[in-house]
TrEMBL record:
One of its GO terms (cellular component) is cytosol. GO terms for molecular function: eukaryotic initiation factor eIF2 binding; GDP-dissociation inhibitor activity; GTP binding; translation initiation factor activity. It comes from Thelephora terrestris. Residues 124-166 are annotated as: Disordered. SUPFAM superfamilies: ARM repeat, Translation initiation factor 2 beta, aIF2beta, N-terminal domain, Zinc-binding domain of translation initiation factor 2 beta. Residues 222-377 form the W2 domain. Belongs to the eIF-2-beta/eIF-5 family. This is Eukaryotic translation initiation factor 5. SMART domains: eIF2B_5 (SM00653), eIF5C (SM00515). The lineage of its organism: Eukaryota, Fungi, Dikarya, Basidiomycota, Agaricomycotina.
Length: 377
């Protein structure tokens, strides 16, 4: 977070404190700049004004920069940090009973803020823009062939410190488990080393990697059976029931946890015909490994090959698959939209690329409609 800056303007009764970098500070906290500005006014008993178009945020009166920085720390504690793990990666959610909840992306807990603070009234009247996850919950399921799924129930109020039992909390817990169990467990691996067994395994390896076409990679080898991606693909294909923790351990053991091509290989070898249901089970792996736009594009490239070439009979579930990855915060709206409107021959032939993107149109349309609904609100 950048250091909060202040500038005193005017004199006499018209003196005021302008905060020139309030937008940058607020962006780092994932909060609208009007919230901390109004918080300063509430704490100092001063009037505030803001012009979001001109990016100008003002607190009436002359106020010392150090004082405002101390108040900003208080704002962070009250309205940003998770009440359970003290992590700042939270989103503000307003429940149907108008309780203000901090939804933590790190530990999955949902904790209520101090509802007695004056800023709460301002936030309830000026709610934060819906995050992509809330949009997904609001209209989940409409992407598939235009059909509506059952309505998602409204959020229930939680007591301070009370944990949420929703599905994402479980996924986050599994991600934490991956951190704690990063060391590879010592096991007794007994491998059949007979000539017949080795020949069978090499045949299986060749069949697996024949399906995997890597794009431009940092290494010179691509799917030749000796490179780490080929070895990872073969191992995952033979151990699809190992579970997310064991798969991630294998990825770590091979030093591929930060490689975007490893994400593509996992997509092509980890799933079966039941991919829609399997995505939730494998969510912890992708939440750990997909950390950039490049990782997301590699994931989408893997889906192109898996659904367009390996399982063309599953082409109709493309919207469902995209929705599942979107709902667990692995795919971002901007990345999916850009991918869906630009045909590429990087992973598949042009016709297959067109076919997969054509099948994704219901999901892309749903994203546009959800965004329009937010603008209307």
């Amino acid at each position: 977070m950048p250091v909060l800056l202040t500038k005193i303007e005017g004199k006499g009764n018209g003196i005021k404190t302008v905060i020139p970098n309030m937008s940058d500070v607020s962006r780092s906290l994932s909060r609208p700049p009007t919230y901390p500005t109004k918080f300063f006014g509430c704490e100092l008993g001063a009037q505030t004004s803001f012009d979001e178009k001109a990016d100008r945020y003002i607190v009436n009166g002359a106020h010392d920069a150090d004082k405002l920085r101390d108040l900003l720390d208080t704002f962070i504690v009250k309205f940003v940090l998770c009440g359970s793990c003290k992590n700042p990666e939270t989103e503000l959610i307003i429940t149907k009973n108008e309780d203000l909840i901090r939804d933590c992306k790190a530990c999955g807990e949902r904790t209520i803020v101090d509802m007695r603070h004056k800023l709460v009234t301002f936030i309830l009247k000026n709610p934060p823009k819906n995050p992509k996850k809330s949009k997904g919950a609001k209209k989940q399921g409409t992407a598939e062939n235009g059909q509506n799924s059952p309505k998602v129930q409204a959020e229930e109020p939680l007591a301070d410190g009370e944990g949420s039992d929703h599905e994402l909390a479980k996924i986050r817990s599994e991600v934490a488990g991956l951190e704690e169990n990063a060391a590879i467990a010592e096991e007794d691996w007994s491998v059949d080393t007979s000539a017949e067994a080795i020949k069978a395994r090499m045949k299986s390896l060749g069949a697996v990697m024949a399906k995997v076409k890597l794009g431009d990679d940092d290494s010179g080898d691509e799917g030749n059976g000796d490179d780490p991606y080929s070895q990872l693909g073969a191992w995952v294909s033979e151990n699809q029931d190992a579970g997310p923790v064991e798969v991630f351990r294998k990825v770590q053991e091979m030093g591929l946890e930060k490689k975007h091509k490893a994400v593509q290989v996992l997509v092509q070898t980890l799933f079966t015909e039941d991919i829609v249901e399997e995505i939730k089970l494998s969510a912890p792996i992708f939440l750990k490994m997909v950390t950039s736009e490049r990782h997301q594009k590699a994931l989408l490239g893997g889906l192109e090959r898996f659904l367009g070439i390996d399982h063309p009979d599953l082409i109709s579930v493309v919207p469902k698959v995209l929705m599942e990855f979107y709902q667990i915060d692995v795919l971002e709206e901007e990345v999916v939209k850009q991918w869906g409107t630009h045909v590429s021959r990087k992973y598949v032939d042009k016709e297959t690329s067109k076919k997969v993107r054509k099948a994704s149109e219901p999901f892309l349309q749903w994203l546009d409609e959800a965004e329009d609904d937010d603008d209307d609100e």
